[in-house]
Write a structure and sequence with these properties.
By secondary structure, the chain is an alpha/beta fold. The protein is built from seven helices and nine strands. A five-stranded parallel β-sheet has the order 2-7-1-8-9, sandwiched between helices. The longest helix is centred in the C-terminal third of the chain and has 15 residues, at 145-159.
């Protein structure tokens, strides 16, 4: 059996509303050679989100099954409400095939992936400022006031974890942040 060289796995994490999904979408559009993992979640779709493209939307029972079968590389309860996780087998298959792979996940998930795949490169996506992060979250218009406040409390904790990462990219402009992220694949 041939021994495949694993490609670099880059793990992208950062606070809520920093633009992780937007930067990952830019990479997907401009560099289709980079495989981007699609997470499973128990939260309902936001307007415009497509099952299997943006997330695998699953019910609580379906998520329980994924956890019980150890089919998730990582998983966590995010913002105290919904569960998110990274299906394991697609990530391993892409890396085994030598394709560069990107995981766009939350901080808790990144910590689990560090334990499971310590050779990955961990990138923290930071906002240019706290005020800009707040503006982006409010400007999304996808959360009510209570949810925004919950996410902002979580974001303060997430920002404090920047030192746990190998590299930081500041998301001032999406194409610039996307290009810096692509440089990490070497």
């Amino acid at each position: 059996m041939a021994d495949h060289q694993r490609s670099r796995l880059v793990v992208l994490a950062g606070p809520t509303a920093v633009g992780k999904g937007t930067v990952a979408a830019w990479v997907r559009e401009h560099h289709p050679e980079v495989w981007i993992s699609v997470s499973a979640t128990t939260r309902p779709p936001r307007p415009g989100e497509v099952d299997g493209v943006h997330y695998h939307f699953v019910g609580e029972d379906g998520f329980d099954d994924l956890v019980a079968r150890d089919d998730l590389l990582e998983w966590a309860v995010v913002h105290g409400r919904h569960r998110y996780g990274t299906p394991r087998s697609p990530v391993e298959a892409q890396l085994d095939a030598g394709r560069p792979a990107l995981l766009e996940i939350d901080l808790q998930g990144a910590r689990q992936v560090r334990d499971a795949m310590p050779d990955a490169l961990f990138c923290f996506l930071a906002p240019p400022s706290w005020d800009e992060l707040t503006r982006r979250l409010v400007g999304r218009g996808t959360e009510d006031e209570e949810e925004r406040e919950r996410r902002l409390r979580t974001a303060r904790l997430e920002l404090a974890a920047e030192s746990e990462f190998d590299v930081t990219v500041v998301n001032t402009e999406v194409p610039v942040a996307g290009a810096q992220l692509l440089d990490l694949f070497g």
